[in-house]
């Protein structure tokens, strides 16, 4: 297991290094000049040259990328007039729009997105696996509807019904978990539900298929021959084998929900990473866009690594390969 873990971590580091090169090339070596975007419309040629020198754009591409990686690992110094401004590691530069460190902006928004993603993932897992164990046409119809309904439509209906008409829940605003756990859950319940419905439908279909396959295996027929109750066979024996793909998919889906929460955060007005990205794209704030892209890449890569380890933990045959 340790050997597998080290191998996966090594692969994750290589993938992240390649991702950083691709992201840097896409955003900083594109035809649009980042110095022009930073300087603004009324920028003079002299000021543009100063901004370009301050950003290191007058150096070779390899040197610029080296400074970019060095900033992530050990931090970086930026000229600020006669002074030098130090950006501590992991440094992703400063926002063109707010002049704040990108890492500080991400750290401020990440708890919101993490709360949204983890809560939605837990809710979708519980509902999806439970629905997958039931044998009901009504549940099958709900699963199909949930799978086919766009998240923005689900969110809009939830807001209109539970916040506007019934007034059972407040319009979602983010309350930190450490300050008010009840308010935190109460305000995130609608966004969790909107995000969880599609994922729950996926888990339900996956669990249903896995249980049906497991019920056809020899050890299940043996258990029935010994007279074990059908409910115990389904929940303790068939479900155990059916959960292997669900467990691996769960680790991947946490990353997918984090990256796919842009629409949900925007719809519910939650100040998360997705909302930060939308604002950065509208303002062509390249450092923030690069930072969000790298953050989502890290989450996806780590999610894949965790999925591999979990798959090996629940299926020993993987470790032997």
From TrEMBL:
The chain crosses the membrane at residues 112-134, 141-164, 184-204, 241-268, 288-314. Coiled coil: none annotated. SUPFAM superfamilies: MetI-like. GO terms for biological process: transmembrane transport. It is a multi-pass membrane protein. It is found in: Cell membrane. GO terms for cellular component: plasma membrane. Residues 106-311 form the ABC transmembrane type-1 domain. PROSITE patterns: ABC_TM1. Keywords: Cell membrane, Membrane, Transmembrane, Transmembrane helix, Transport. The keyword Translocase does not apply. Belongs to the binding-protein-dependent transport system permease family. This is Peptide/nickel transport system permease protein. The lineage of its organism: Bacteria, Bacillati, Actinomycetota, Actinomycetes, Micromonosporales.
């Amino acid at each position: 297991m340790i050997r597998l873990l080290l191998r996966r971590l090594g692969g994750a580091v290589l993938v992240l290094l390649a991702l950083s090169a691709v992201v840097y090339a896409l955003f900083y070596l594109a035809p649009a000049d980042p110095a022009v975007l930073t300087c603004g419309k009324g920028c003079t040629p002299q000021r543009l040259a100063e901004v370009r020198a301050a950003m290191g754009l007058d150096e070779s591409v390899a040197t610029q990328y080296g400074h970019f990686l060095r900033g992530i690992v050990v931090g970086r110094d930026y000229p600020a007039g006669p002074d030098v401004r130090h950006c501590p590691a992991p440094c992703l530069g400063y926002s063109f729009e707010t002049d704040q460190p990108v890492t500080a902006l991400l750290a401020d928004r990440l708890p919101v997105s993490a709360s949204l993603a983890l809560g939605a993932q837990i809710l979708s897992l519980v509902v999806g696996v439970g629905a997958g164990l039931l044998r009901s046409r009504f549940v099958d119809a709900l699963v199909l509807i949930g799978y086919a309904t766009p998240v923005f439509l689900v969110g809009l209906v939830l807001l209109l019904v539970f916040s506007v008409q019934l007034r059972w829940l407040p319009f979602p605003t983010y309350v930190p978990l450490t300050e008010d756990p009840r308010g935190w859950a109460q305000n995130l319940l609608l966004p969790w539900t909107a995000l969880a419905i599609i994922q729950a439908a996926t888990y339900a279909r996956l669990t249903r298929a896995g249980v049906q396959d497991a019920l056809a295996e020899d050890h299940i027929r043996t258990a029935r021959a010994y007279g074990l109750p059908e409910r115990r066979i389904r929940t303790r024996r068939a479900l155990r084998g059916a959960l292997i793909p669900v467990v691996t998919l769960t680790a991947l889906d946490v990353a997918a929900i984090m990256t796919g929460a842009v629409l949900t955060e925007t719809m519910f007005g939650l100040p998360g990473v997705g909302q930060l990205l939308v604002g950065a794209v509208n303002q062509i704030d390249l450092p923030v866009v690069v930072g969000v892209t790298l953050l989502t890449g890290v989450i996806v890569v780590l999610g894949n690594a965790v999925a591999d380890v979990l798959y090996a933990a629940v299926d020993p045959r993987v470790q032997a390969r």
